[in-house]
Fold:
Amino acid sequence: MSAIAQQARTRADEAQAAVVFERVRKEWGGRAVLDELSLTIARGKLTTLLGPSGCGKTTMLRLIAGLDLADAGRIVIGGRDVTRFGAQARNVSMVFQSYALFPHLSVEENIAYGLSVARVPKRDAEARVDAALARVGLSAHGRRMPHELSGGQQQRVAVARALVLEPDVMLFDEPLSNLDARLRVQVREEIRELQRELNLSVVYVTHDQEEALAIADEIVVMEAGAVAQHADPRTLVERPANAFVASFIGNANFLNLPVLACEAGRAHCDLLGKPLHFAWHGPRIVRARIAVRPEALALEVIDNIAPHLGLAGVIRRATWLGRSTHYTVDTTAGELTVVSHSFDRPLPEGARVAVTLDARGAHLLGEAP
Structure:
């Protein structure tokens, strides 16, 4: 493909994307927070940025919003290069963690504020405000003041204020962190329904794994300013790209197992005499690093352990969390975390158990260190 054809194809791809980062670099205090980061965020999808504190996800959000500018590289939004443009020159709306409502303005006036700054005619602005209030279920609350609303209602006002501007991209910066657990689930479902109904392009920052898995079409897992993996939620859980992703999404266990054979795109491993088979297209290895989801392990109390039953272990800690019990088990293969959704009473600490594995919850990461 010629250079001109390649350039045309790149521009066409960028036009189809919501946001494109091309080798973006951002420094703070002489330290690179993002270093040569490249990423394409799909249009019409809800994409979450997920990762531990300091990984760069909020910096990415601020760069998209134009609140900060990149030190190097390109940022394209809706096919337009906005790298050197500030927030006012980008058609992007942001919902902040703190809601950031004006306390002296009514709900209607808060939602209409951005339209007045953009000099939208009054009649058009009123119609758009009414439509936004209806979409978030607050049509009867337009004349109230922010302090007269619950936390969940204030969050809806913040969403309506972003929606009314009809942005190319909507940004959410940990928007549910100030809500209680039950309300978080309700509001995240409302945000998801709005995104689907209006075919919005949404970039959503969170540190909550469950929230990201529940709400996202795609998840970008960040590690130290780089993309560790970009995939749909199921792929992240079932086929993590590396040990960091496996441990961050679902708190995987890791086992180092002998490899019996590598052939025809498969690796055949051994777990206490039980064969395990994995897709593997890398070089031949003699020991494999396996990630195992805690839910793929099961416990059985035993009196006299037999090798074929599984890994011998002792329950060191049992924590009941209402919907599940989390066990820490000391085994012959090291410490394992087991999550059980059984309605039976939790097994007691100190119980001798056999740990068995459902191979569907295991994934071969690569060669064991």
The chain has a mean pLDDT of 89. The radius of gyration is 25 Å. The chain is about 25% helix and 35% strand. The first strand starts at residue 17 and ends at 28.
